[in-house]
Amino acid sequence: MAEFCNLQIHVNGQQTFFVNEKIISKYSGRLKKIIKQEKGKTRGIKKSSIDIDDFPGGADGFELVSRFCYNNGSITVTVSNVPLLHCCAIFLGMTERISSCNLLQQTETFLDGIFYWSWNDILVSLKSCESFFSYADSSGLVEKLVFALLAKIAQNSDIILAAPSSSSSSSPETASGFRFSSPTKNISPSARRRSSSRPWWFDDLSILPPKIIEKVVKSLGAYGAENNSLVLTKFLLHYLQKKTAVIRKGSLNSRSEYGGLAGTVAYGAILLGKTAFSWRGLFWILRVVSQLGLSRDCRIGLERLIGGMLDQATLDDLLVCGHDGGVYDVNLVLRLIRVFVSDDSVSAQKMKKVGRLIDKYLGEVSPDQNLKVSKFLGVAESLPDSARDCFDGVYRAIDIYLQSHPTLSSEERSRLCSRCLNYEKLSLEACKDLAKNPKIPPKVAVQALAAQSQQCSSIASTPEFVYESPIKSHAQMALYNSFDADSTSVSEENEDLRLNLQRMQWRVVQLERSCMEMKGQMSRMAKSKISTPSPALNRAMPRLC
């Protein structure tokens, strides 16, 4: 038996095959050349050994070739092994010049009937190319399989796939990968059972590796910035979403394999924009592709598009999981807000709508222990003052934040309140709660009460009306109208004005009473909070009302 196995072949440094020199080299021109060179180096040695590196498919590929050689040039070719056999035959030079009806000729004959294969046969054959993709691609086999795949899609769907011609592949007319038309063939029963919300071939193509999907997209002339196809963009989104769980468990290199596809989705979404996707759809796209190797330019382009539509968002949309240790991705929301407010054409109504949304968002993210003061300030201050008619929502968010972060210093608490709040736009109830809040520094409470008092005084000093002390009964209050008192007929508009002025007067009276109550509360609170009096505290309290 030893005289028959007179050659050792080490394949890719992984496995050693003991074969007969004449049998294994009978069909391979490359093996004959390697063995001849090795014999010249090792004269007088009966047994020789050769190394073969970068062999397609490794040991599995060489085993198939060995079976072909030991079976007198015969092997059963199937859709699952024909790609590997074809690449091995090219690698070893198993052509008709070496032997008639050689392995390369047999695989090429089998591949000639590729357009008569079933849909599953093409998928199985493409899937098998994953481990030796570079060889299959360089030989033109992947391209042949991809075009057969696209032909099957065109025959069994409502979509005609138009691949760009070689003479004008860069023209805008041929850049589009899909166009719609009436169906030409009946869809298979398995396809009919699938959901009608997406094309039947979406799930089937999701089993293919990213390199082959890239080849499919490039064959359609829609890769990267050339993508202007809605159907292709939706398919890639479906594909990346199904791969997300696998990508999360993988390494950084596995994520980078999907970077080109993620960029293609981003370019398609940017180009199609608002006409094809809602705000929620675009935001979902951003969440999917941002987990992959998305380029900075693609990310900025998507965020610019999404940020301009921020008024269509809901609170649930913005509560995205964070990637830097925080519970929520506050940085993303902050970038979207900056895009929105940078647009000078935004109406006041939309700006106020976003203001109410961001106040709710602050209230939701405030309990996050990892949320820094700088991030809270960044979100709260990102909107102009005109975006809020009332700052009660911001105050509630600050109150929650202070409860969740009890270790903040007095300076940090004061900075939060002074930079985030407009005391003049706080409601009376919110101002009273602020003054009683033990987490709010006394200095901030005094400033808020002073602002409320000043607002009351400015309203009371208007020339349209005056009022007496709020302690007096309502009957003693007098309204001095600027119109002639002797006028016997008052128009309907003037009557409305008079009623509005009366309502305002009642409001001022209530504010005065509340200010007097809060002034007494502030005096008691200041005495309880400050144990050692300073010279500054010996001065009388300012008159607030």
Adjacency order of strands in the biggest sheet: 2-1-3
What is the molecular shape? elongated
Largest sheet: 3 strands, mixed
Termini separation comes to 113 Å
Tell me the number of strands.
5
From the alpha-carbon coordinates, what is the Rg to the nearest angstrom? 39 Å
Helix percent reads 55-70%
- Runs in which pLDDT lies below 50 for 5 or more consecutive residues are 163-196, 464-490, 531-545
Oligomer: single chain
Could you characterize what this model shows?
The chain is mainly α and about 550 residues long. It is about 55% helix and about 5% strand. The chain has 26 helices and 5 strands. The strands form 2 sheets. A 3-stranded mixed beta sheet has the order 2-1-3. Strands 4-5 form a two-stranded antiparallel sheet. The longest helix is centred in the C-terminal third of the chain and has 38 residues, at about 490-530. The N and C termini lie far apart (about 115 Å). The model is unreliable at about 165-195, about 465-490 and about 530-545 (pLDDT under 50).
